[in-house]
Amino acid sequence: MLCGLNFWKPSAIMMKKLLLPFCIMLNACVPTTSQEPVSRADMEITGAFVLNPIPVAPPTTLSVSNKDLATDFLDLTFQLETGKALPVFTRFEGPISVAIHGRIPAPLPAELNRLINRLRSEADIDIF
Fold it and tell me: For residues 60 and 92, is the Cβ–Cβ distance under 8 A?
């Protein structure tokens, strides 16, 4: 009851509303440090940093020729899953027929149809 001010008890909401204006008013009292804005022209930069900011090693030459790299690549890709070597890549220029002989497992026709449809749509191969 000091000076009759016990009736005024600020709530948390009121304190939050008064906090931002108080911080703005307090920030207005802070003196500035510089009268001019800083420009990039004022910065002192050494010439070596500007010319080469990140040291880069000179490019090295390959010890293997492109022909040898191509041969190695083709050696890896010209094999069947069984390991049998293929003399050349195969290319289909006409329609292809697919036939199944012998004992046919139950899921084979459905899987074969999915494979054929995928080859037709993605590789644009004419299969009948």
Answer: no
Closest CA to 89 of 97, 81, 77: 77
In a domain, 5, yes or no: no
Q: How far apart are CA 50 and CA 56, in angstroms?
A: 14
**The predicted structure's pLDDT at residue 57:** 78
Name the pTM for this structure. Answer: 0.33
**Nearest CA-CA partner of 85 in 75, 94, 99, 70:** 75
Tally the domains of the chain.
Answer: 1
**Is 57 contained in some domain?**
no
Where on the phi/psi map is residue 3: left (φ > 0), alpha (ψ -120 to 50), or beta? left
